[in-house]
């Protein structure tokens, strides 16, 4: 089971490394072409389009991936029927949003930016959102059917096309937010054509036919399976993201939103592995009746350690990284970068546990937890951001993600028995205590002393966490492999 899981996850991991690497290069180019305010506005528009996608999802993406993973249990015609219904639902809802934004741009301008910024291509938000679902829904089915290699290739290609399109159009035309968005739309169109072409060939191989049957009952079933999960885990977060853009525009500054986006891109390094295996979890664990606690334990231990170690390295050398990749103009966002790095550790591990629960049919619980977390985040942000600005954002995010992490963690460990729970608890204690080592970095004056401390601190954390993360069974397997390799080499 673990061997097959790792093989499948390796393809998605490869796609994440390639795709996020290309996306990081794209952000680097845009950040240098656009000033901090323009870069923040560009990312606010992209985030708004992504939120529209999430609002129009109605839980169908999770349902599509989970049901298509059970191809052997479900008739191929039913999978084709369900895919078409889900695509039509998302297409109709996104089209309605696109038309609303086109005909009522002033309303959305006030909602998102409070009419505080001039020359905003508001009407392109809907088009970006619409093209995104035409490209993404076929990929969801490809992933659900277990075609991880094809999925990986498409994800790398999609980001490569976006990078080439942006550089090409910005070179030909004047540098502006509008041209950057049109480049994104052009790349989405090309990617949509390629995704549907690949999907058509794959469906022919698996003898899955795209036919619409029993539309009413099947639509009700899709809503029944995914709507509660959608309410908390998707819809609430999407609405809050739109509200957050408005709060940033009015009380904090839209350039600060750009800092958040850059910080998110930097911490994407931490989520490359978990995101890859999170996608595989829903497909892979849904096919297996056993709890897979050995597989889940490995992910929790190794991903937690990887996130922690990468985070402390990023924080120790943050100034150098910002100036090297984005320019000194973005150094004022250092505080935001540190917060995003720290909170992202919770987000990544929480997402992995969430994928465990969803794959085993606990989507309703995850949806309820997410609803509570997002609701508290919304209340805290609405009250605190107008009063204390960015610190209100920090507090709201900490409350929301912190509570969600505790609740999903509690559900997972109460529901499923982990034989190596003592190792997991010991590792968790070391990671929490190890965070205290970051404090001197902000208190000591710049100089050779602080640089020596950084090296010692990072080395100490590597030596403490990695050996603890490996349990006795895995250590024995590694030693056996080494002995076998040594014996063969002789």
Topology, element by element:
Layout: H1 2-33, H2 36-55, H3 60-68, H4 76-103, H5 105-113, H6 124-144, H7 148-172, H8 177-206, H9 215-252, H10 254-285, H11 293-316, H12 318-325, H13 334-359, H14 363-388, H15 390-415, H16 421-434, H17 439-443, H18 448-469, H19 472-489
Helix pairs in contact: 1-7, 1-10, 2-6, 2-9, 2-10, 3-4, 3-6, 3-9, 4-6, 4-9, 5-9, 6-8, 7-8, 9-14, 10-11, 10-13, 11-13, 11-16, 11-18, 13-14, 13-15, 14-15, 16-18
Folded structure, characterized:
The structure is a single chain. The protein is mainly α. It has one domain. Helix content is 84%, strand content 0%. The protein is built from 19 helices and no strands. α4 (76-103) packs antiparallel against α6 and α11 (293-316) runs antiparallel to α13 (334-359). The chain is globular. The two termini are 31 Å apart. The model has no long low-confidence stretch (mean pLDDT 81).
Short description:
With 490 residues, the chain is mostly helical. Helices cover 84% and strands 0% of the residues.
Q: What is the global morphology?
A: globular
Query: Multimeric state of these chains?
Result: single chain
Largest beta-sheet details: none
SS strand fraction: under 5%
Q: What is the C-alpha radius of gyration, as a whole number of Å?
A: 23 Å
Q: What's the number of structural domains?
A: 1
Distance between the amino and carboxyl termini: 31 Å
Number of helical elements: 19
Total beta strands: 0
Structural class: mainly alpha
Question: What average pLDDT do the residues reach?
Answer: 81
Helix content: over 70%
Poorly predicted regions: none
Sequence of secondary-structure elements = HHHHHHHHHHHHHHHHHHH
């Amino acid at each position: 089971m673990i061997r097959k899981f790792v093989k499948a996850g390796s393809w998605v991991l490869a796609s994440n490394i390639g795709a996020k690497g290309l996306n990081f290069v794209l952000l680097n180019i845009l950040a240098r072409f656009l000033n901090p305010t323009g870069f923040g506005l560009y990312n606010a528009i992209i985030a708004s389009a992504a939120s529209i996608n999430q609002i129009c999802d109605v839980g169908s993406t999770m349902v599509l991936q989970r049901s298509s993973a059970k191809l052997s249990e479900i008739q191929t015609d039913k999978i084709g029927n369900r895919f078409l219904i889900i695509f039509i639902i998302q297409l109709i809802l996104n089209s309605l949003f696109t038309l609303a934004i086109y005909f009522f741009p002033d309303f959305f301008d006030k909602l998102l930016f409070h009419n505080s910024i001039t020359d905003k291509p508001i009407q392109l938000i809907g088009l970006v959102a619409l093209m995104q679902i035409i490209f993404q829904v076929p990929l969801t089915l490809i992933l659900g059917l277990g075609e991880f290699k094809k999925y990986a290739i498409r994800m790398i290609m999609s980001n490569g096309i976006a990078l080439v399109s942006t550089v090409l159009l910005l070179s030909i035309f004047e540098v502006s937010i509008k041209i950057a968005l049109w480049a994104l739309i052009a790349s989405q169109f090309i990617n949509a054509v390629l995704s549907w072409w690949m999907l058509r060939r794959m469906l022919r191989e698996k003898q899955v036919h795209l036919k619409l049957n029993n539309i009413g009952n099947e639509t009700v079933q899709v809503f029944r399976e995914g709507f509660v999960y959608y309410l908390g885990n998707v819809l609430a977060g999407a609405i809050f993201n739109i509200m957050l853009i408005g709060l940033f525009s009015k009380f904090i500054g839209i350039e600060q939103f750009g800092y958040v986006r850059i910080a998110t891109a930097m911490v994407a390094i931490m989520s490359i592995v978990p995101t890859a295996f999170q996608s595989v979890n829903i497909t892979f664990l849904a096919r297996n009746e056993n709890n897979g606690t050995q597989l889940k334990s490995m992910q929790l231990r190794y991903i937690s350690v990887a996130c922690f170690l990468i985070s402390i390295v990023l924080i120790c050398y943050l100034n150098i990284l910002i100036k090297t990749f984005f320019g000194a103009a973005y150094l004022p966002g250092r505080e935001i970068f540190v917060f995003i790095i720290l909170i992202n550790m919770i987000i990544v591990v929480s997402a992995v546990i969430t994928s465990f629960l969803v794959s085993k049919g606990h989507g309703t619980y995850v949806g309820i937890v997410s609803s509570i977390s997002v609701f508290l985040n919304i209340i805290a942000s609405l009250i605190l951001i107008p009063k204390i600005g960015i610190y209100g954002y920090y507090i709201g995010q900490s409350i929301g993600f912190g509570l969600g992490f505790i609740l999903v963690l509690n559900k997972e460990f109460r529901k499923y028995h982990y034989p190596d729970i003592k190792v997991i608890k010991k590792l968790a204690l070391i990671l929490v205590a190890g965070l205290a080592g970051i404090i001197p970095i902000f208190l000591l004056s710049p100089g050779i002393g602080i640089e020596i401390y950084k090296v010692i601190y990072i080395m100490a954390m590597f030596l403490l966490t990695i050996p603890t993360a490996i349990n006795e069974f895995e250590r024995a397997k590694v030693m056996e492999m080494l002995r076998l390799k040594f014996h063969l080499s002789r």
